[in-house]
Amino acid sequence: MVxxxxxxxxxxxxxxxxxxxxxxxxxxxxxxxxxxxxxxxKQSEAIIIKKIKQHFPLHDxxxxxxxxxxxxSEFRWVIDPLDxxxxxxxxxxxxxxxxxxEHNGEVVAGAVxxxxxxxxxxxxxxxxxxxxxxxxxVSSSATLIESLLVTGFPYNxxxxxxxxxxxxxxxxxxxxxxxxxxxxxxxxxxxxxxxLDGFWEVFLxxxxxxxxxxxxxxxxxxxxxxxxKPASIDxxxxxxxxxxxxxxxxxxxxxxx
Length: 257
Ligand code: IPD
Ligand code: CA
Ligand code: CA
Known about the structure:
single chain, D-Maltodextrin-Binding Protein, domain 2, 2 domains, globular
């Protein structure tokens, strides 16, 4: 399954890269002025679903743009065909394809492909996390002042949902720096690779985090909700760290829960 996830992510990712600057239609989702979807998101999703169905025609699928394709299988593929759509519409080269596979509700394999840097992050439960085939590990930073953190904001951030703005300010004051890349799957992959030390976001969807969560765990990191409970992919609030700074980040999140 991990090989099919990688093949699908690679094919869709190359399609995304080829289409930078060639978008024909931008729609707004759910009446939100900043929540964009393009025809490229939908076409990328079609490429991925076609590939999965060739190999696993009886598996379930949850895909961001077309929803649930339910066949009552033990397996479910959870797909973000273009993570970082806002970046993509600006030809800002931070976006990715994210594909996770669940078995009985637990993520067991995943791939995140960043076509701009040609980086394929892959993982299988119990087998580790890899970047272009080489094993990756989370960082060893033990304090926030040595830690480069990353976050993302939901599309309704202007309403400051779940104190998203307060969390951002608190971490800005405590950490070495805070980045906002605009693609949650890349945020999580970078925590797995040790490039970033911790990631939090108040509201993610399952497709944003399915593959990335397993990447972080298999790279030796910790993923929970904001109350420190092991995070299912259906849990919107997400804290993913190298493990060493996890408790400290939970303390800071608690200030504004
Ligand atoms: C978004 C990105 C962004 C995160 C948002 C997501 P999309 O996904 O991952 O970084 O902050 O919460 O919705 O819409 O580009 O697939
Ligand atoms: Ca996404
Ligand atoms: Ca998306």
